[in-house]
Predict the 3D structure of the following.
Amino acid sequence: MLGFAALGALAAVLLAAYTLLVLAPGLPTLDAVTDYRPKLPLRVYTADNVLIGEFGQEHRDFVPIQEMPAQLKNAIVAIEDERFFSHSGVDFKGVLRALLADLTGGVPQGGSTITMQVVRTFFLNQERTLPRKLKEALLSYRIEDALSKDQILELYMNQIYLGQRSYGFSSAARTYFGKSLNELSIAQDAMLAGLPQNPTRHNPAVNPERAKQRQVLVLKNMLRLGYITQAQFAQASAEPMRINTSPTVEAHGAYVAEMVRQSMVAQYQDAAYTIGLKVVTTINQAEQLAAYESVRRNVLAYDQRHGYRGPEAFIDLPADEDARDDAIDALLQKHPASDGLLPAVVTEVAVKSLKAELASGESIQIAGEGLGFAAGALQANASKAVRLRPGALIRVVQNAKQKWVISQLPEVEAAYVSLNAQSGAFRAMVGGFDFRRKNFNHATSAWRQPGSSIKPFIYSAALERGFAPATIINDVQLSATTGDNLKWDPRNDDGKYDGPIRMQDALAQSKNVVSVRILKAIGVGYALEYLPRFGFDADKHPSNLTLALGTGSVTPVQLARAYGVFANGGYLVQPWLVQRVSDARGKVLFESDRSATPAEETRAIDARNAFVTDSMLREVTRSGTGAAASQKLARQDLAGKTGTSSEAVDGWFAGYANDIVSVAWMGYDEPRSLGGREFGATVAMPIWIDSMRQALVGTTPRELVVPENVVNVDGRWNFSEFDSDAGVKTLGLDEQPTD
């Protein structure tokens, strides 16, 4: 017996010597925990503090221990380390209890303390070897000696991985429940506290039954330790767990967030993803959401007007049920959802109905109105590419009545942008139908033909050459008045020619021939020199008369900035997005000093010119091609212009009211016609109307300030010096149609 005791003592001495002489010198320093700098993601917010973007490998919020809810701390201690506040890093009673449970076949228990888990998280791997366990014990003692219990618990609660790419309890609360820590119930505290042992096994979003079992165990421990009462235990045990399945960051601001990400990475390189930058933008949340929904709704409406193209993919469904389920799951994983536009695999078809399976496993039936524009695809005479049959991958969406309806992913794209006309601040921006599907930002980077939306700038140039809204211009085809066989003979879109027409009315009705006559009169060279005043690139516009019909190239943001010149009285302001950048500690790294009103040195055109052009743009929305905007928004202070490029490849609407200037665009990435009956008024203006409806909520029409040296005659404005015999009174009236 004495021999065994001596051997045991010798082994203990040797183990201690090995630990102190061999392992201890090679231990890492404690800088990672004594100077804790967690990897915090880059987060992007709207001006009203709504999260619209998060970038970084680890989703984490840092929350000081003083701000951690007491009941959550109690739940963690109860399940992970109930003697945490009394041991010195290693709980020998806990280790013996765990060994006894293993030997007797009892409920498995962990012997690791919270401090030891902190050690593993920061310094060691998960291998089960004696040297690793000894290092863990040594580091635990050192941490306990260097930090207070609250500091150790703070490290644990902010650093631990809890599944779903969430690190720390604050991030996990947002991920699983969509709440802040202070909003959690006892039941939710217990659910989160059960995650550290095995975040995959106890993930409530993936394994709700196992998560519930773990939660109940946490609650039992809390009851046994006196952290909760019997009544609280009963209530928490019975509380339904509503797990958040939607993304923690909504998709509606994805293009904005990506712009910010690129800017921050350019400035801070890869550190932008880990130093906890908080970027507050100028975006208005309500307007951004309205714009996002408007783009998607109107793109889908256009898409359905042009017919069903057929399923996205086909597979042959196996006869074996398990193989069939596997095949359906594999196909659905290749075709992710696009917001509410869900993929589904057809499993049964009839003449007037079908059944399909969603990624959730739910089987749905679609019939009657739900078939919509795809009803013909069930018919026997439908082409093979379009026919709906078992194994076809389709898109479905729930309508307002929560009924399933067949839809499809659109091929067409669209964009919307709105700016504060005075300051240049972005208010909303949607760069495409679905960022996850196609992250190209059409609002900032798509160079497209502006069509008739360029005409107001030609008219503005004409004002400087003596033209006026009352100038009478001959609306007759050029070839009809010259009798020449012209190489290019522009025509009005509707094929109608009104003869003598006032310039203001010609803009309202978007008369192509009149615009070409004006440009011919003032000179293409002068117009190209004039366009850069509005921020346009002269080299992106043709040096010929087609310039009047918008055959050059602009981006939606560039066009919005240009229309802003008419909206703000003549100033060209630079669009900007980032309002403030702060670090993880709240220190402000950047704060915009942009003025709320434009500086005089940014003046692009005379105030009179802006005012008179504005008066013509208001006529467009009163009686012209944009009249539907005034009717549907029930406002008389709108100004704007439709635009349709040649062959209806691009559709536009650009306009403004109350210092909000915005542009909507629709077109295909591989340019092709939107359709013979489609125009800017049918594809882009509905996007603009639905978006501006929210932007103008609570606003009243602003009273216009009439600048000096303008006069109003018969309801039309003019420069005072051209009110008499000076200026251009008529154009082309001496050119009579030939037989």
User: Anything to note?
Assistant: The longest helix spans residues 2-23. The radius of gyration is 34 Å. The mean pLDDT is 90.
